[in-house]
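assembly run, all chains below
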Amino acid sequence: MGNVVHVVGTGTIGEPLVGLLCDMKHQLGIDEVTFYKHSAVLTDRPKVKGLLNRGGKLVVDKEKIKDFRELDLEPEYTAEEAIERATVVVDCTPKGIGLQNKEKFYKKYEDKVTGFLAQGSEFGFGKMYAAGINDDALNSDKYIQIVSCNTHNIAVAIKTVAMRQSADNFVSGRFVCIRRTNDISQSSGFVPSPEVGVHNDERGTHHARDVWHLYNTLGLDLDVFSSAMKVNTQYMHAIWFDIAVKKETSTEEIIDNFINEPRVAVTNKKLANLVFSFGRDHGHYGRILNQTVAVLPTIFVRNKHEVVGFCFTPQDGNSLLSSVTAVEHLLYPEDYRERIEVLSPFLFDEV
Ligand SMILES: NC(=O)c1ccc[n+]([C@@H]2O[C@H](COP(=O)([O-])OP(=O)(O)OC[C@H]3O[C@@H](n4cnc5c(N)ncnc54)[C@H](OP(=O)(O)O)[C@@H]3O)[C@@H](O)[C@H]2O)c1
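ok done. output:
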C-alpha cells in the first residue's frame, strides 16, 4: 500500500490539507491520500469532486454509502477501513470529536498506524507541536496535537523577540488575540460587533495555556498570559504582544530578528485585508504558510527591555505547515526537513 495519509474532516483545515497533500504527494513521498467526509450534502458535492480530481480517495461512514451514491459520489473506503490502512491519520474535526475518535477508533489501530495528529481544539490529544518551535521534542510520539493558529503566532513571537540566542532571555509575555469572527469558508458564528472574552485561569485564555505547554515540551516554564476578543471581520486574526526580555535591546534589533527568522513574514502593511489579499495571488490556493506576519511599523522597544507590536495570523496556513511537517516527521524522521522544502514557495519573507 505504501504511505497512506488519511485526513478526517474537510472543513477549514481539512479541505486545504487534503488538497496540499494531493498536489505534493510525490515530493512528500506519500503514495495515497484518503479523506473522510462526514455529511452527505448536495452543497458540498463540488468540494468533494474537487478533492477527488486532485487525487484524493473518498471515505465515508458505512451507513452513509447510499447517501453519497445518491449524490453521484463513489466512496472508496469506509471510515474504519481507512483508519486501519493508514500510515498517518490527521484529525481535522471540530472541538471534542478528535478526542472521541481517539478513544473509539485510533487506540484500536495504534499498532498498525505510525501516528495520529489532531488540531488546535483537541487539548490532551497528544504532544503539542508547532514547526520550528519544538522539533527537538518530537521523538517517537504516536499522538501529536498541532497547536492552534494563534498559539503558533504567539510561540513564534516569543522565539523571535526573546529566544534567538538563548531561552533565558525571555522574562514574560502578555498577548491579546484579536480574532476574526469566522472564516470566509464558514457560514455561522459571525458576531455583529467586537465581543470580548473571559479569562479562564492564571494563563487567561487557551492561547497562553497552550503556548506554555508547547514550550514545556522543551523543559521551559514560561510566564505567559493571554486575552482574546472577536471583531466583526472575516480577514486575519491580529495579535498584540508585550514581551519583556533580560538583555538590553532596541527596535532596530527586534526588527532584524523578525526579518531573519525562518517561517516569519514581515510587512509594512497595516491592514489585514491587504495581507490576506496577497495570499490570494501568491499563496497555495490563496494561502501563505508562514507562521506569522509581523507588522514592522508597529514594533517598538520601551525602556530597552519591553518589546511591543502587532502581528497577523495566517490562520490555516501555519496549521497546515505544521501538519505537513509532522506528517513528514512520522514518515521520514531522518530527512523530513529536506522533504518539506517543497513548501518553501509558499513561505514568504515579505508580504
Ligand atoms: N478554522 C481555523 O482557522 C483553524 C485554524 C487552526 C486550527 N483549527 C483547528 O482545526 C480543527 C478543525 O477546525 P475547522 O475550523 O477546520 O472546522 P470546520 O470548518 O467546522 O470543519 C470540521 C470538519 O469536521 C467534520 N465533522 C463534523 N463532525 C464530525 C464528526 N462527528 N466526525 C467526523 N467528522 C466530523 C465536518 O464534516 P461535514 O462538513 O461533512 O459535516 C467538517 O468537514 C479544530 O481543532 C480547530 O481548532 C482551525
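The pocket of NAP is lined by residues 8-14, 37-39, 92-94, 97, 119-122, 148-149, 183, 186, 315-316, 319 (CB under 6 Å).

Residues 4-125 form a domain with the Rossmann fold fold (CATH 3.40.50.720).

not gonna interpret more than that til we talk
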